[in-house]
């Protein structure tokens, strides 16, 4: 396998991991600013947004 392909693949996986953890951080910040009774709603909303955007990338941008 070409070394450039390996480096590009490692770079994409590393940045995808950073984006995934950034989404978790935003969920923690957003739930920290809300009342405790709304935390489940906020976390589920963040999960749905992440799931929809992941499927959208898989079907539209990942192919």
Could you explain the architecture of this structure?
With 63 residues, the chain is an all-alpha fold. The protein has one domain (3-61). Helices cover 86% and strands 0% of the residues. It has helices spanning 3-33, 39-61. Helix 1 packs antiparallel against helix 2 (39-61). The longest helix has 31 residues, at 3-33. The protein starts with a helix and ends with a helix.
SSE order and pairing:
Elements: H1 3-33, H2 39-61
Count of extended strands = 0
Which sequence of SSEs, written as H and E, runs from N to C? HH
* SS element count, helices: 2
The end-to-end distance, rounded to whole angstroms, is 20 Å
Alpha-carbon Rg, integer: 16 Å
Quote the beta fraction: under 5%
Low-confidence stretches: none
Tell me the major beta sheet: none
Give me the secondary-structure category. Answer: mainly alpha
**Average pLDDT score:** 88
What fraction, in percent, of the residue positions are helical?
A: over 70%
Q: Outline, from the CA principal axes?
A: elongated
Total domains, how many? 1
